[in-house]
Structure formats: structure tokens, C-alpha cells
Amino acid sequence: MADPQPIRFKDGAAYELTMGKWSHLVGGRFVDWLAPPAGLAWVDVGCGNGAFTELLVERCAPSSVDGIDPSEGQLAFARTRAGAAGARFQVGDATALPYADKMFDAAVMALVIFFVPDPVKGVAEMRRVVKSGGIVAAYAWDVTRGGAPFEPIWDEMRRLGVEPAQPPSKDVSRIEGLARLWRDAGLLSVETREIVVERGFASFEHFWTATTAHNVNVAIEAMTAEQQAQLKARVQARMPTDAAGRVAFTSKANAVKGRVA
Ligand SMILES: C[S@@+](CC[C@H](N)C(=O)[O-])C[C@H]1O[C@@H](n2cnc3c(N)ncnc32)[C@H](O)[C@@H]1O
Description:
Layout: H1 12-34, E1 41-45, H2 51-59, E2 64-69, H3 72-80, E3 88-91, E4 104-110, H4 119-129, E5 130-141, H5 151-159, H6 175-184, E6 188-201, H7 204-212, H8 218-221, H9 225-238, E7 247-259
Parallel strand pairs: 1-2, 1-4, 2-3, 4-5
Antiparallel strand pairs: 5-7, 6-7
Helix pairs in contact: 1-2, 5-9
Bound molecules: S-adenosylmethionine (SAM).
């Protein structure tokens, strides 16, 4: 199989169609688990189009929220998101955060750690910018164990001999990988949790459009029209629909949290 092109994050509106809803579903459960007190200063590392930033603003009564992401296309959407009003967004990289030491009470990576080429450095940076006693947390789809929302498509692509694009550091998405990263970074009171979420779609067509709209599926773009039609038919054949034609799919994320010493 040819190496797939890397996953790109260029278009915040397309991301919203594909991953925004999933991000809200899993992010909401993650916030419930964190149960943070009000009044914290947060940094949302890899904030993307602001899907999770919005949850911080709306549900966590923060004193401030900073969001950072390398993609200007994602940030442009985040800046227009009414639910994230008041958050400050800027371009930057998880492995070189443009913040002073101990500036924040909490740092999070929502569906990001497996995209960071050097996750060890990414966690060290979150730890550096959080005050003593503060929270460092993350969650990621359990990509290597079939937990991603794209899994039925990825699986059928592989059966057709097409390698789907994958997050470059996908091995850290395993629950034991996250726990090890957090402990090795010297974080205390490390806890992990699996988060399973179900998303319903009005029809298979809705599922297909919503799951392929975002250019995360760059390998699909590289397939011929005939291959794409074959892929779609194979995915449809394995997705059960109810009497009304609705489709539901369940995804699984792994979450981790710890405290700065
Ligand atoms: C799956 S999206 C998650 C976006 C958002 N946090 C959410 O929950 O919807 C992954 C994001 O990680 C960003 N990203 C990729 N590499 C990064 C890096 N080295 N540092 C920070 N963010 C990165 C991408 O630009 C993208 O917006």
C-alpha cells in the first residue's frame, strides 16, 4: 500500500461538518469527568475550529480561555464561533507554546495529542505553562483499536488496498500510552477513562457526507470515482439502519488527567 498523505486541517467549516458534532459529544463527557471548578485560566492546545473551546467557555465558567493551533483555517472559524466569544485564539505549536511558565490553571488537548509529532514534548509544554496543582488533561480517539468515527470507512479502504491517512502519533491514543506519557512527564494523581459516544445520522447518506466532508479523508480524494463508489457501497452494506433509515455509529476515546506537582 502506498503511504497516505498526511491529514490536513485547513478548513474549519468542513471540520465542523465532520468532527464538530463528535467533538462536542466526546468533549462534553470529558468536561463532566474533569469536573473543574469555576474561575480557571485555561489553554486549549490544538483548539482547531474552537469546538472544544466552546465547551470550556459555555460549561466551565473560566476566568480566561486561550486557544492555540497551527492552522489559520481552523482558527478563522473559531474566531467566528459565538459560543467561544471571549476566547483568545492564536497560531502556535503544541511543542513550543508561546506562553510564560505557570500562566494557566489548566491545559487541555482535545483530539490533538496523536497529531503532535513529539507528544512527550507536547505534554512537557502543557506542564510547563500550568501552575503547581493545576490540571493537564487530554483525550484522543482510540485509533489503533477501532475507536475513531472514521473506522468503518478506514476499514473498508484497507480491504480495497488503500491505506487511509492516520494521525502520525496514533500509538499514544491507547489508554496505557496516555497514562505512561502523563506519568513520565512527572504529573501526579494520573487517572484515565474510556469515553464511548454514539452519534446518530438521519440516513446513511448523512453519515457518508458528514464523515467524508472534511479533508481528513485525503486518501479518499486520491481514489478514482469508481473506487469511491465501491467504497461507499461497501461501507453502506455494513452500516445497520433502523426502520426509518437512520444510522448510528459508536466511537471510543481515551482520556487522561493529572496534576502539576
Ligand atoms: C482533530 S482536531 C481537534 C480540534 C479541536 N481541539 C476539537 O476538539 O475539535 C486536531 C487539531 O490539532 C491541530 N494540530 C496538529 N498538529 C498540532 C501541533 N503540533 N500543535 C498544536 N496543534 C496541532 C490541528 O491543526 C487540528 O486543529
